[in-house]
Amino acid sequence: MQRRDTDPDSPAVAAWGDPAVVARCGVAAPAPTAVDCLEVDGVGWIPERLSDGTRFTSFGTEPAVEVLVPRAYAPEGLLLPVFGPAARALPRNGLACR
User: Fold this and answer.
1) pLDDT of residue 23
2) Residue 64 and residue 23 in contact, taking contact as beta carbons nearer than 8 Å
3) What is the CB-side half-sphere exposure of residue 7 using CA atoms within 13 A?
4) Does residue 64 form part of some domain?
5) In terms of residue numbers, what domain contains 39?
6) Helix residue spans in 1-98 (DSSP H)
7) Residue 6: band (very low, low, confident or very high) from pLDDT cuts 50, 70, 90
8) For 59, how many CA atoms within 13 A lie in the half-sphere containing its CB?
9) Residue pair 47/35 in contact by the 8 Å Cβ criterion
């Protein structure tokens, strides 16, 4: 996908495509949760359904990576492997998908 400008232009936020897939680094790490965790290529992700797609937050990293995927790219989870290298580069916090 073509990279897009973000507003405000921040080195911690990047977007691609139309509608935009948005990735944000440095978000607060999720606490232990009962929500089903997806493991994709060795990275845990906590999904949260939104009105227009899904928010995925890396699980087990501190800080976390947040990826917003519009419903237009359903099934949204198929885009997660692209973000795996960024999430795997983050320090681990001892939490993992079960």
Assistant:
1) 96
2) no
3) 1
4) yes
5) 22-98
6) 84-88
7) confident
8) 23
9) yes
